[in-house]
Write a structure and sequence with these properties.
globular; Malate_DH_AS; about 35% helix; Rossmann fold; 3 domains; binds oxaloacetate ion; binds NADPH dihydro-nicotinamide-adenine-dinucleotide phosphate; L-2-Hydroxyisocaproate Dehydrogenase, Chain A, domain 2; alpha/beta; disulfide bond; 12 helices; three-stranded antiparallel sheet; plastid; EC 1.1.1.82
Length: about 450
């Protein structure tokens, strides 16, 4: 059907906009753009996109500052829906906007479906997914959006895809920053910091310009601590406290290994802190950890194993997994992102805590300020967190934490030009690895 015919039949028969979307997405010429007018919105209904934004080609990046341009929605998500129309949805919360970068990548391919299912934010929480890709990945991003369409998730009310962070991050209440260049063979850590640092500087600026003023940001793309620091430094109008670097996967890995050694199921392991950097200097803290409510060292009476085997196992778990799989962990990383979000939107169980890479300013442990460092956190479930005060230290733990701190201070010097601190001097003490690189 030609565009004009489709257009006139729409006017005559008042096709629902989702039907139009269906038709338009199946037009043979993929570069064609459909210019139709949407049905007028019903009372209480929300018009998701203007029909003019139905596109079967990669959209031209739209700068959010252009008020004439509306956001893009994909396929069936270009609909007029009414969150109050059905009995079931009357108790639903107000929809939230979740932006995801690297949305066509492996981690996202697991994560997006968890988000859409309701298992992360709750079965009464409708969501809009705003997916950021690039020219390189745009077709794959369309594939992701198509799979989301075909999954018929009731809570998933909008999906939009784009390649301009200033467009995609508009009004985002959560930003899950996953996209980053992986470190390739022969690439120095300094090169990776430079390439990915630029991505996170731009995304920080975009968040600062267009996201919700209280957006919560979880940086997954590596090296995630320093990327998170770059991002927050480029977003001065968003509280620095709102930025996290994902170290929850490391926490989960540590709980699993302690459970295995102790011969208990992993739900018995609690109070597990990962200190420092998501790299091989990270410190899984068995001094403060607990198994079945008891200090780890009272259950596992093998200090050598804890200090050497266990610690190294967690630091290098990602690399061992890559050797088995031929790619880095995607499913367990997505689970850990879910855990990280849920830890912020549900109250932390009494006496327990979780790990997250957060801004060090004001920390009670004496870690250098102006870093993103993994530390123990508790939340009331309101999206915010506080640092746990009642932790203990011994010489071993302090020495390890100091090493992680030195690494992050050195990484910070490499990206000084991206955080407004002058000229970068990149002299990393030793070329440590991401967990996945071993
Ligand atoms: N913190 C943690 O615990 C963990 C972090 N990670 C990290 O998460 C990130 C994503 O992992 P995963 O989803 O498996 O990776 P994939 O390679 O599957 O996807 C990464 C995405 O990053 C985007 N990207 C952005 N810039 C570049 C670039 N210059 N070159 C290539 N790709 C780029 C690509 O999307 P596009 O083209 O759309 O931009 C790509 O789809 C990686 O940095 C990885 O190291 C992984 C596991 C654990
Ligand atoms: O280096 C990677 O991409 C993988 C990684 O971070 C991990 O498995 O912890």
């Amino acid at each position: 059907m030609a565009v004009a015919e489709l257009s006139s039949s729409y006017t005559k028969t008042s096709l629902h906009s989702s039907q139009l979307s269906f038709l338009s997405n199946r037009l043979s010429n993929p570069s064609r753009r459909i210019d139709l007018q949407p049905l007028p919105p019903t009372r209480n209904a929300r018009v998701v996109c203007s029909v003019a934004s139905i596109q079967v080609q990669a959209p031209v990046p739209v700068h959010a500052e252009d008020p004439k341009m509306k956001r893009e929605c994909y396929g069936v998500f270009y609909v007029t829906y009414d969150l109050k129309a059905e009995e079931q949805t009357k108790t639903w919360k107000k929809m939230i906007n979740i932006a995801v970068s690297g949305a066509a990548g492996m981690i996202s391919n697991h994560l997006l479906f968890k988000l859409a299912s309701g298992e992360v934010f709750g079965r009464d929480q409708p969501i809009a997914l705003k997916l950021l890709g690039s020219e390189r990945s745009f077709q794959a991003l369309e594939g992701v959006a198509m799979e989301l369409e075909d999954s018929l998730y009731p809570l998933l009310k909008e999906v939009s895809i784009g390649i301009d962070p200033y467009d995609v991050f508009q009004d985002a209440e959560w930003a899950l920053l996953i996209g980053a260049k992986p470190r390739g063979p022969g690439m120095e850590r300094a090169d990776l910091l430079e390439i990915n640092g630029k991505i996170f500087a731009e995304q920080g600026k975009a968040l600062n310009a267009v996201a919700s003023r209280n957006v919560k940001v979880i940086v997954v793309g590596n090296p995630c601590n320093t990327n998170a620091l770059i991002c927050l430094k480029n977003a001065p109008n968003i509280p620095a406290k709102n930025f996290h670097a994902l170290t929850r996967l490391d926490e989960n890995r540590a709980k699993c290994q302690l459970a295995l050694k102790a011969g208990v199921f992993y739900d018995k392991v609690s109070n597990m802190t990962i200190w420092g950097n998501h790299s091989t200097t990270q410190v899984p803290d068995f001094l403060n950890g607990r198994i079945d409510g008891l200090p780890v060292e009272e259950v596992i009476k093998d200090t050598k194993w804890l200090e050497e085997d266990f610690t190294e196992k967690i630091q290098k778990r990602g690399g061992v997994l890559i050797k088995k799989w031929g790619r880095s962990s995607a499913a367990s990383t997505s689970v850990s992102i879910v855990d990280a979000i849920r830890s912020l939107v549900t109250p932390t169980p009494e006496g327990d805590w979780f790990s997250s890479g957060v801004f060090t300013n004001g920390n009670p442990y004496g870690v250098a300020e102006e870093l993103v460092f993994s530390m123990p956190c508790r939340s009331k479930g309101d999206g915010d967190y506080e640092l746990v005060k009642d932790v203990i230290f011994d010489d071993y733990l302090l020495k390890r934490i100091t090493k992680a701190e030195a690494e992050l201070l050195a990484e910070k010097k490499c990206v000084a030009h991206l955080i407004g601190e002058g000229i970068a001097v990149c002299d990393l003490p030793e070329d440590t690895m991401l967990p996945g690189e071993m």
